[in-house]
Structures are given as C-alpha cells and as structure tokens.
Write a structure and sequence with these properties.
heterodimer, A: mainly beta, 5-stranded antiparallel beta sheet, globular, B: Peroxisomal Thiolase, Chain A, domain 1, 9-stranded mixed beta sheet, binds zinc ion
Amino acid sequence: MAGDEKMVQDWPLPDTVEDEDAPFWQHANAGELAIQACARCSRLRHPARPMCPFCQSREREWRVMSGHGRIWSLTIPHPPLLPAFMPYAPYNVIVVELDEDPTIRLVGNLVTGPDGRIDELDPHEIMIGEPVHTVFTRMADDCSLVRWVRDGS
Amino acid sequence: MSDILSIKDRTAIVGIGETKFAKHLEPSEKELACIAIKSALDDAGIHPSEVNALSSYTMESTEEVEIARNLGMGNITFFSQIHYGGGAGCGCVLHVAMAVATGQADVGVAWRSRKRGSGARPWATVGARLHDNWKYTRPYGLVRPVDEISLLTRRYMHEYGATREHLCNVAMAVRKHANNNPNAIMYERTLSRDEYMSARWISEPLCLFDNCLETDGALACVIVRADRAKDTLQKPVYLHAASQGFGPQHQTMTNYHCEDPLLGPSWATSARLWSLSDIKPADIKVAQLYDAFSPLIPLSLEGYGFCERGEGAAFTENGAIEIGGRLPVNTSGGGMSEAYVHGFNLINEGVRQMRGTSTNQVTGADSCLVTSGEGVPTGALILRT
Ligand SMILES: [Zn+2]
C-alpha cells in the first residue's frame, strides 16, 4: 500500500509535529514503539498528555517498548467507508495490549509485514489473545504507522 | 446530607413536542427546533414568553438566541449546552431542572433538532492531518462510530459469551415496539431473526440491524417546578433523580485506554443516580436505554444495575426487554427503529409512559429510567408519576 501514491494521498494521517506526542511519531518513523511515561511514578500513559493522572507530575519522558503484545479485540469494517479504505474492505482493525502494561492498548492492523495490505490476512482467523509484535509502515516522510504481525511470522 | 439542596421530585416535565420523523424533512434544523419547542409548550399550555431557561447539545446547530427570538421568548436567565453528542440529552433536562428548582429560572426548555438523515455522515469529513485521539485510530481504518463500538462489542462477547443471537434480541424487541408506534420510521417494517442473521455487515460482529437509523427530526420538553406543574394541561411527570457521568481515564467513543473499558460511562452515572433515588432498579418496570448500537443495551442493563456484570446479554432472552417482559426497553422503537435524534425521543417516550399514553403502554409503570449515550460521557433520568 505504501507504493500506491493515490491511496496514501487520501489516507487519514496524524499530525506528527504537535508538541505533546511528536516523539511518538519520531520513534515510529525510526522503527520503535515509544510510550509516554511519568518520570516521577513511572506509570505509562497513552495517548500522551502533559500531566500524570496517577501522581499529577508534569515530569515526563518517552520509553521505548519491546513492541510485543496480545490482541485485545478486533473488528472487521465493511462499506460504506472513507474512500481510502474502500478498496481494502473488509479488512481488520485490532486493539493490542502491551506486554509492559496491558492497560496500554493501541489500535492498529494485523499485517504480514511492514508493507502488507490490511486486507491480506483472513480476518476471521484472527483470535483475541494472539501474541503479536510491531512493524512500521512508512506512509509519508514524517509518518510511519504502527502495525502488528503475528509472533513467529 | 441533610443540608444539601436536593432536586428530588421538585421539578416536572409538563410538555413534550416533536416533529415528524423521516429520512428527509424540508425545514431547516432551526425551523424544526422551533416546531418541536412550540409543540412542547402548547402541550403544557405555557406561552413561549414565559420560558427563561434553555439547554441543548453543543452539537446543536441553532443557538439559544435564535430559539428565543424565533419563539418570542422574554428574558432568558439560564442557558447551557452539554457536550458529547448523544451523551447530552438527559444532561440538558438535568441542567434546566436544577436551574428551575433553585430559582435561577421558572420555565425550562430542553431540545434537540438534527437533520442526520439529510446531512453528511459526520465521520466522512477528512481534514489535512488528524489531531487529538483520532490520530491513534483513524489511520488504521477505525473511522466510524460503529467501528469504535464494534471493538468493545467483540471484547464483550469474548469475555462473557454474548452472541449475535443476543444482539438480535435487542434489534427485534425495539422493532416490535416500533411496529406498534405510528410515528416510528419502522412502523410498517417488521424484522425477523432470519432477516437479521442474513443482513449485510457494517463492522463485524455488527450488522446493519445493530445500527441506529439516520433521521431528520426535532424534539423538546418543558420543565417547571412541581408546584407550578399541577396547574398545567398534562399529568405532570416528576424528575425523581438524575445524574451525568463518565469514569476515570475515559476517552470518548474510543474508550480503550482505561483500566477496564467495558465499565463504560453508565457505571459512573448509575452510581450517583441510584444513590439519589428512592426508586431502585428492581422497582423500574420500563426503561428507555440509548441505542445507537444494539450492544449498548446489554452494556446499559449491566451499568444501571438491572443485572450483574456480564449478564446483560442473557437478560435479553425470552422476551424480557419486550412488552410483557421483565423490563420493556425502548417502547417507542428507540434510536434503532423509531428515530435517531441523539436520544431525545427516549426522553419523550419516558414521559408518555408516565402519562399512560404510550402506544406500547407498560401496565403499572410508575417510574422509568431514561439514559443517554453509552460509550460517551452521558446522563440518565429517573422519571416518576
Ligand atoms: Zn506519575
């Protein structure tokens, strides 16, 4: 999909230079999953925000994760959809809970590799609880999306 | 608690009004709002010049000043807007009720007007780059509200063994109710289990019939103090208790980042609501539960204490949420089969049940729970005769 410029042009992409979470996207573009953490009480939080909800500290840092987690849930969207997604429907959307902290959950897609299509895998064979790890799909110079592949693949 | 000012039973809904419901109506949202509010005031026998409190949704397109100068209202002394789309409705009633009960105003109007049938689907608008939480969901094709709720639904099914049969129970119950409500969009359209099971997918495991309608329409209600209510045209429907609510670490619609995403905003709302109420879940004989999507019904049955956690799906078995069952739900057809106007039709139907004028009247119902959107910061009301 990264090679299809028309598709990428219409694809909804994040603003990657906003103050609070720019590091998330910088790390993703470098092939790392980083999550914001409190520098005082050490708890992770996602999405990023300026104050720790557990200890109210504003001291914060970014921590690179192992990139491993488990599928917490999934859905399989069908039309009508945004034009960018129509050629791929039905495709999978998954939620992954991270090994480091299962309450840190990320929405993504299960693919076969960084440039795998989101409709490539049979969505009906995806199971809650499956172990997965990160891959990074380059969508624009400043933006890579965090996606997931099955462990052992 | 003795020195705390309570609004329990101190206000009443004395007028309800609504436009026709249709996929497309000609008048503007502003004009539809005026029609619904005038109708509600006529129902109560109160002149628009007496209204001095207004509340609606932040998503409402018509501002308070426009409402007031169209209807010829006088001095407005209280106005508020409630956030979070379909989560707002019951909060609007609560806000004007608090204003009226505390003497900030005397006659309050809450309303919602929306041309969701004619207008563009809100999720279909694409900006240059995404901001806020949407950055972490939309690039992955999680675009529509149905996709967002579907992720919670799949997890709910996984944890508690709920099935599509249960969701079908919900869709068929509200459709049956609509089939006996001439104002419902689905009045003449029945729904069978076979039709449900063979319907096209929208976001698996949710199919077409798990989704609300897309409707043009407007509704309003009128709230006054209990002493004034006795002098209006209709049987007063008292606001016994109400609450708004959302829980820790909540994220609107994409509530995947809190400790326990299946404990939705209904849980936070419910705790306060019942603590303020002399009426308990076991006493409630009819409920109007927000149903933008069918799984919100089992989630709400749990959140509002009609069953234990994980039992909401099984609760829908054996006709329990249909007329004649333990707790008839959405007796006008609700958002899935009467009209989807961000849940305001649930409020008006709750009032009709307390007046005894519903087309699906529940015998002996002397209290009714009404809720706003589950999955977003929400609100709930306990109405009583
Ligand atoms: Zn902290």
